[in-house]
């Protein structure tokens, strides 16, 4: 009986203001009231060793909006004592408790070091306490929801109108005590003198339909959302409020939270540790199930992704431009929420630069940026995949029991335009990770342009087989590879920008699955800028390679790579290992027609620019063939050698010429792109040229003010010459005015100095004359 509680109110009066308080991980009780009349709103008590809330010695205040979570070895969610077993005696405890949510632990095994009671119950009312208890939710009941013993002269009632003094104990029959139908679990356990009281308390045994509460909560639980689902059981049979109690706010729900306001944000340990969702403005839609038929997500709602959502075959999920989807860290069952578009289904997500579509994390901004906070976006198609035999399907990483692949090269999985996927990539297990955007067996009928993945824990964009093409790809600061191709991917990419950041792995990893079955992976990548970090390290939790190389080509991959710039090379620009029988060349004219036709070759342009302290190539024995590159500074306008997440500003464009009119390396030699209906010829290498900053306005870098917020719109040498001329003229005029002002200031300073010098010389002359006069008598 001599412990320190988290917060103790001893005889504190109602003139004291108390709201938004939290006690977490206290060894004894969380919040205890010894007598007094202090009123409290918004109380959070988490994982304490004994009772979360304790009232005693005549406490007669009001508590509203209380949230309690018990761990496995916690004691009661609340213990209400009176220490007065006489009947009708002044000073009886009579707390008023409205709108409280008590979350128990179904395997509760009391481990308190300070309790006199090992009974596993969420609420304990004893020793003759009075009080008024309404709009309560008690869930995860492991033994009993309400335990009563040591009753005295208090009068039990379940009618609020009966309460006329502190000698009444009112427990509303509308309170929810959810047993989940578990065997041996009771709502109310009244013992001893309490068992003879009339009436015996009852409550509603129904699911409160909270958004996300696990049945065995602990500090290791990844995510909690204690808000009730709109229209659920928490919004029915609402209790009246005690007459004359002006402290209570009248609300239309049971429990501690409305369906929109998570008041834990900014207060709770759960918020500081990214375990609960932030509040969002506007209307909220909780996404809790699959898309079974054509569905539209509108931009005037914010969608909270609480689980893995499958767009099932035949259904189309349309997402309007400007829509935001915020995902939880976990669905309560160990699965990372994600959107998965199954074979035969489509996603139509056509955003714009002004209204991009955003998939992000639901946690507070104070926890961002961070990786691995949810799953990702997964498209499963019916296009060809390496090595498949009938029924031509393979399992996808990160999602159990779902398949991709087929024989339809032009399969259509929908549209992704101006789609941003941030802060995802949850790792489910060894070799089972969710990429930012996964294209698995996706066909060429799918439209993909202007997509971005940022801060993904695993790979940014991964292609497992398939034939889908993509333009304008931005991948920023991912934990593993920026872009990964595998299992016979046959698609094309142009205008690619990847920044590995401080701890990322490769800018791209291209795998080919070795010799034998077909198709061989054959990605075609033109106009790409890969930015490494010369002071970084490989921090990936899912890689089998920690080599500090910007590109890794392996396992016999074929492909064509041209107009590429690789900068900030630490160890090597391109690492090649595990080669097969592919022809490795830097001169397409030397490759036979049959090899060109079968795509059994790997071409890397000798014009590729590689710059940094590392070597251009690291070639494993047996992989000889690639050696040529231009080891020159491409002249990016602003790109530090340690460019990373915390760098204040980037400018990834390249000027066409030096001050003397000589063409810069990015413009002096340019590869011809393949002659087809996809690639666009540009007069520069890299992703942006002189002024086509196509990530401006919608990229994470634009939102964080790390790049210019307005697209220059030029497209390198193909840009608008009038716009460029205006820019040059503007700069010239600005510089001229600057130098004129400098000259005026310099002239003014020179004149003033001459003036001060003349004054000083006159003063010095006067002083010298005074020193030459004879002293007067008297020493003057």
Instruction: Count every helix, treating DSSP H or I runs of 4 or more residues as helices.
Output: 5
Distance between the termini: 90 Å
Low-confidence stretches: 712-730, 765-780
How large is the radius of gyration?
A: 35 Å
Mean pLDDT reading: 90
Principal-axes shape call:
elongated
Largest sheet: 16 strands, parallel
Strand content: 25-35%
Structural class estimated from helices and strands: mainly beta
Structure description:
By secondary structure, the chain is mainly beta. The protein is 9% helix and 30% strand. The chain contains 5 helices and 47 strands. The strands form 7 sheets. It has a 16-stranded parallel sheet that branches. Strands 21-24-27-33-35-37-39-41-43-47 form a 10-stranded parallel sheet, with no helix packed on it. The chain is elongated. The termini are far apart. Residues 712-730 and 765-780 have low confidence and may be disordered.
Outline of this structure?
With 780 residues, the chain is mainly beta.
Features:
10-stranded parallel beta sheet, mainly beta, 780 residues, single chain, 30% strand, disordered C terminus, 16-stranded parallel beta sheet
């Amino acid at each position: 009986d001599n412990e320190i509680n988290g917060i103790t109110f001893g005889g504190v009066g109602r003139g004291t203001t108390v709201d938004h308080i939290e006690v977490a991980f206290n060894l004894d009780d969380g919040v205890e009231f010894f007598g007094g009349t202090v009123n409290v709103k918004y109380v959070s008590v988490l994982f304490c060793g004994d009772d979360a809330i304790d009232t005693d010695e005549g406490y007669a205040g009001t508590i509203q909006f209380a949230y309690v979570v018990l761990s496995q070895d916690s004691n009661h969610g609340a213990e209400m004592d009176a220490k007065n077993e006489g009947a009708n005696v002044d000073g009886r405890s009579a707390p008023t408790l409205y709108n409280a949510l008590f979350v128990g632990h179904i395997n509760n095994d009391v481990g308190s070091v300070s309790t006199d009671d090992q009974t596993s119950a969420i609420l304990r009312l004893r020793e003759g306490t009075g009080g008024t208890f309404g709009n309560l939710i008690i869930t995860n009941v492991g033994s009993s929801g309400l335990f009563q013993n040591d009753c005295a002269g208090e009068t039990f009632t379940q009618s609020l109108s009966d309460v006329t003094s502190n000698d009444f104990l009112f427990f509303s029959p509308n309170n929810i005590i959810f047993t989940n139908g578990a065997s041996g679990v009771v709502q109310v356990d009244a013992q001893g003198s309490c068992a003879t009281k009339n009436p015996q308390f009852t409550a509603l045994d129904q699911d409160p339909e909270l958004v996300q509460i696990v049945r065995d909560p602990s500090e290791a639980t990844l995510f909690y959302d204690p808000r009730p689902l709109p229209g659920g059981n928490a919004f029915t049979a609402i209790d009246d409020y005690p007459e004359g109690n002006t402290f209570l706010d009248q609300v239309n729900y049971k429990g501690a939270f409305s369906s929109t306001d998570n008041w834990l944000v900014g207060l709770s340990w759960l918020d500081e540790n990214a375990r609960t969702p932030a509040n969002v403005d506007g209307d909220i839609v909780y996404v809790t199930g699959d898309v079974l038929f054509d569905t539209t997500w509108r931009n005037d709602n914010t969608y909270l992704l609480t689980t893995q959502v499958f767009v099932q075959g035949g259904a189309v999920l349309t997402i309007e431009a400007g829509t935001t989807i915020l995902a939880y860290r976990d669905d309560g069952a160990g699965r990372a929420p994600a959107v998965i578009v199954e074979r035969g289904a489509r996603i139509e997500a056509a955003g714009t630069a002004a209204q991009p579509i955003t998939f992000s994390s639901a946690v507070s901004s104070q926890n961002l940026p961070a990786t691995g906070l949810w799953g990702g976006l997964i498209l499963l198609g019916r296009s060809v995949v390496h090595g498949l035999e009938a029924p031509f399907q393979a399992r996808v990483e990160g999602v159990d029991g779902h398949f991709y692949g087929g024989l339809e090269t032009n399969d259509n999985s929908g549209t992704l335009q101006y789609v941003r996927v941030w802060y995802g990539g949850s790792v489910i297990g060894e070799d089972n990770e969710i990429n930012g955007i996964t294209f698995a067996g996706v066909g060429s009928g799918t439209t993909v342009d202007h997509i971005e993945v940022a801060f993904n824990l695993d790979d940014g964009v991964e292609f497992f087989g398939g034939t889908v093409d993509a333009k304008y790809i931005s991948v920023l600061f991912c934990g593993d590879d920026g872009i990964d191709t595998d299992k016979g991917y046959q698609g094309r990419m142009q205008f690619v920008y990847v920044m590995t950041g401080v701890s990322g792995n490769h800018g791209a990893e291209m795998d080919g699955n070795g010799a034998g079955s077909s198709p061989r992976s054959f990605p075609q990548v033109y106009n790409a800028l890969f930015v490494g970090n010369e002071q970084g390290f490989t921090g990936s939790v899912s890689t089998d390679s920690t080599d500090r190389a910007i590109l890794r080509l392996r396992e016999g991959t074929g492909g064509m790579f041209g107009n590429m710039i690789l900068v900030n090379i630490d160890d090597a620009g391109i690492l090649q290992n595990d080669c097969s029988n592919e022809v490795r060349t830097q001169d397409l004219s030397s490759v036979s027609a049959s090899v060109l036709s079968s795509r059994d070759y790997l071409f890397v342009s000798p014009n590729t620019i590689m710059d940094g302290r590392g070597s251009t190539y690291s070639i494993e024995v047996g992989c000889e063939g690639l050696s040529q590159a231009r080891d020159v500074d491409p002249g990016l306008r602003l790109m530090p050698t340690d460019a990373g997440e915390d760098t204040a500003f980037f400018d990834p464009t390249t000027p066409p010429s030096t001050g003397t009119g000589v063409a810069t390396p990015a413009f002096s030699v340019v590869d011809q792109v393949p002659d087809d209906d996809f690639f666009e010829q540009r007069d520069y290498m890299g992703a942006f040229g002189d002024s086509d900053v196509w990530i401006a306005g919608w990229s994470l870098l634009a939102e964080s003010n790390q790049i210019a917020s307005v697209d220059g719109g030029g497209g390198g040498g193909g840009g608008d010459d009038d716009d460029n001329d205006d820019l040059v003229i503007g700069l010239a005029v600005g510089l001229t005015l600057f130098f004129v002002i400098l000259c005026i200031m310099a002239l003014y300073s020179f004149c003033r100095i001459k003036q001060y010098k003349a004054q000083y010389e006159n003063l010095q002359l006067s002083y010298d004359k005074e020193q030459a006069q004879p002293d007067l008598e008297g020493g003057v």
